Amino acid sequence: MILIVITILIIVLLLFIPSIYLSRIVLFPQIRAYDATFRLQKELGAIKDNFINTLKNEEFYLKSNYGYKLHTVFFPNNNSKKTIILCHGITDSLFASMKYMDIFIKRGFNVVIYDHRFHGKSGGPNCSYGYFEKFDLKNVADWVFEKCGQDSIVGILGESMGAATILQNSRIDKRIAFYIADCPYSDLTELFKVRIKADYHLPAFPLIPISSLLYKLTTNVFYDEISPIKDIADVETPMFFIHGEKDNYIPHKMSIDLHNAKKRGIKKLYIAPNADHVQSYLKNMKDYDMLVGEFLNSINIC
Fold first, then answer.
1. Three-state SS string across the chain, please?
2. Which of 271, 289, 301, 299 is nearest to 101 (CA)?
3. Which of 93, 122, 148, 289 could crosslink 37 through cysteines, CB 3.0-4.6 Å?
4. Which of 139, 141, 145, 146 is nearest to 123 (CA)?
5. How far is CA 69 from CA 123, 154, 199, 220, in A?
6. What is the pTM (predicted TM-score) of this model?
7. Which residues, 6 or more positions from 156, have their beta carbon under 8 angstroms from its beta carbon?
8. How far apart are CA 111 and CA 141, in angstroms?
9. In this predicted model, what pLDDT tens digit does every residue of 176-229 receive, in sequence order?
């Protein structure tokens, strides 16, 4: 009898220890230092001083619905009525969004970049992979409409977690004119199934369900509640899905699935050749720029 109890305890420990570890990593991912993010983006050629240093900007903090502050920067463009909001990915900061700015500035857009909760100079207790971040994004959009006018045209581009966030936002904010989602995950649980095998060589079951329960105890959110593919099913807002063909972090099939799942409104898909995760623009600048322009033309915005 004692042996059975000991065996059960060992099994429980073997299940819960990695599950606790996984849930902690999910809650508190290792974020790059703010300055380190800037240096990395410069090394990648994503930030060019001769471009950024010539732009006027307004830096400020917005208050989230959850009490923390969102570090935000606004780049005005000749009193334009068009604005693009750019959303960075996990572990990064607003500097990662800067590579997309020229695409929109030369097309007459104002630009807003900001740090997600738990990232950069923003506050926030943990990372929620778009669940709470979508409400922060709506706060940013509220500010844009107040600043530039309720008749403004506002679009949003996001990469990686930022892309998943904007797709979740599409369900709650019908004011947005278009979305461009670069390498999003379609469903957080499905992504974790891929990552737990690739990164830790561990089985998805029962570790992900247990980890999800532990995550729920902290955030009041289960992993399966974070599912962009469910959120966009009935959204009519135009969407452009972009994904690197060689993405080794989030499979490009997820963008194909998202494109197929969107049943209403205009949609477009581009699988970028020779591009790993968040590299679609850096590896295909001319095509990326051209295709974004074509997408904007197709919805009568550019």
1. CHHHHHHHHHHHHHHHHHHHHHHHHHHCCCCCCHHHHHHHHHHCCCCCHHHHCCCCCEEEEEECCCCCEEEEEEECCCCCCEEEEEECCCCCCHHHHHHHHHHHHCCCCEEEEECCCCCCCCCCCCCCCCCCHHHHHHHHHHHHHHHHCCCCEEEEEEECHHHHHHHHHCCCCCCCCEEEEECCCCCHHHHHHHHHHHHHCCCCCCHHHHHHHHHHHHHCCCHHHCCHHHHCCCCCCCEEEEEECCCCCCCCHHHHHHHHHCCCCCEEEEEECCCCCCCHHHHCHHHHHHHHHHHHHHCCCC
2. 289
3. 93
4. 139
5. 5, 22, 33, 21
6. 0.95
7. 84, 85, 86, 87, 137, 141, 166, 169, 176, 178, 179, 180
8. 12
9. 999 999 999 999 999 999 999 998 888 888 889 999 999 999 999 999 999 999
CA distance 96 to 265: 29
| End-to-end CA, the chain | 74
Token pair for 14: 């073997």
Higher per-residue confidence, 14 vs 271: 271
Could you give the C-alpha distances from 211 to 8, 21, 230, 290, in angstroms and in order? Answer: 19, 8, 21, 42
Cα–Cα distance, 232 to 242 (Å, whole number)? 16
Amino acid (one-letter) located at 154:
V
- Which are the contacts of 250, defined by CB distance < 8 A and separation ≥ 6? 160, 183, 184, 185, 191, 194, 243, 277
